Amino acid sequence: MNMKTYADYHIHSEYSRNKHGKGTLEDITKRAVELGLEEIAVSDHGLKHFMFGIRTKNVKKAREEINELNKKYPQIKILQGIEANLTSMDGHSDINEVITKNCDIVLLGFHYGVTFRTIKDAFVLLVLNYFAKYSDKLRKKMIEINTKALEEVMHKYDIDVLTHPGDKIFVDIERIAKAAEETNTILEINDSHGHLNIEEIKKVSKYNVKFIIGSDAHSVENIGNCDNSIERAVKAGLDFKRIINIK
Ligand SMILES: [Zn+2]
Ligand SMILES: [Zn+2]
Q1: Residue 247 lies in a domain
Q2: Alpha-carbon Rg of the chain, whole angstroms?
Q3: Per the domain annotation, does 1 fall within a domain?
Q4: Taking the CB of the first residue and of the last residue of the chain, which one, N or C, has fewer CB atoms within 10 A?
Q5: How close is the Cα of 16 to the center of ligand 2, in Å?
Q6: Could you state, in chain order, the average pLDDT of each consecutive group of 10 residues for the chain (247 residues)?
Q7: Do 222 and 8 contact (CB within 8 A), yes or no?
């Protein structure tokens, strides 16, 4: 079996702050063309990620650049994306009007390094999630809180893709899949992070959800990477017709 993605919607550029992503938008485009990709999205970290987030002015600047690049490289379609953040326990995010106006595709994932909505949100989502590794009782409590937060964010906002579900925090992955089904949110099999992992793919594929492979490339060399994801999907017995960016 020789499967490949023809589109990669999870690529970070130099607009992710603090040199977190490496390439310029044109570097990324050239590399994607070289790989024969038909469509890409540059999806930098969301505005409230204080370590790596894109700045508002760069969302607008990237939009103009992408419009120009689409004219210059007609052999590929370049979308502007964002990897937005969950910012509160009741399902708020950093998706605002600037994002919805400029972005063609909206991804969202849970990340640390985010300015959470309130002190309490920060305490619970950062500190308690950290200690949840060490206590069964706390872990149970956090699974409930984290799952509910992600369910709510999917219902509150129009999110196209939930990135690396099951990564970084404990969740009830089946409830996440159910919310994804209800809200038409695609679940990512992230090639850089180990999630969705094999067990998770098995569980969530019982629901009527679609999947996407994202390289999560932070440098141009990793654009289009999909081998790890494909391996996990094969091992989980996933029907490849359900992965939207594979041929
Ligand atoms: Zn991420
Ligand atoms: Zn990412």
Answers
A1: no
A2: 17
A3: no
A4: N
A5: 10
A6: 87 89 94 98 96 96 98 98 98 98 98 97 96 96 98 98 96 98 98 97 98 97 96 97 95
A7: no
Nearest to 156 by CA among 224, 200, 106: 106
CATH number at residue 63: 3.20.20.140
Q: Would the CA dihedral through 138, 190, 227, 245 be positive or negative?
A: positive
Which residues line ion ligand 1, judged by CB < 5 Å? 109, 163
Looking at every residue in the chain, the average pLDDT score rounds to 96
**Residue corresponding to tokens 């600037």:** 98
Does residue 54 belong to any structural domain of this protein? yes
pTM of the model: 0.97
Of 50, 4, 10, which Cα lies nearest the Cα of 217?
Answer: 10
Nearest ligand, measured from the Cα of 85:
1
What's the pLDDT at 1? 56
Ligand 2 centroid from CA 108, angstroms: 9
**Alpha-carbon gap, residue 206 to 181, rounded angstroms:** 10
Name every residue whose Cβ is closer than 8 Å to that of residue 24 and which is 6 or more positions away in sequence.
13, 14
CA of 191 to the centre of ligand 1 (A): 11
Q: What pLDDT does residue 21 have?
A: 81
Domains in the chain: how many in total?
Answer: 1
**Cis peptide preceding 196, ω within 30 of 0:** yes
Predicted local distance difference test score (pLDDT) of residue 113: 93
Instruction: Print the domain residue range for 169.
Output: 7-242
Nearest ligand (C-alpha, residue 113): 1
Q: Which of 175, 169, 165, 166 is nearest to 131 (CA)?
A: 169
Dist. CA 17 → ligand 2 center (Å):
13
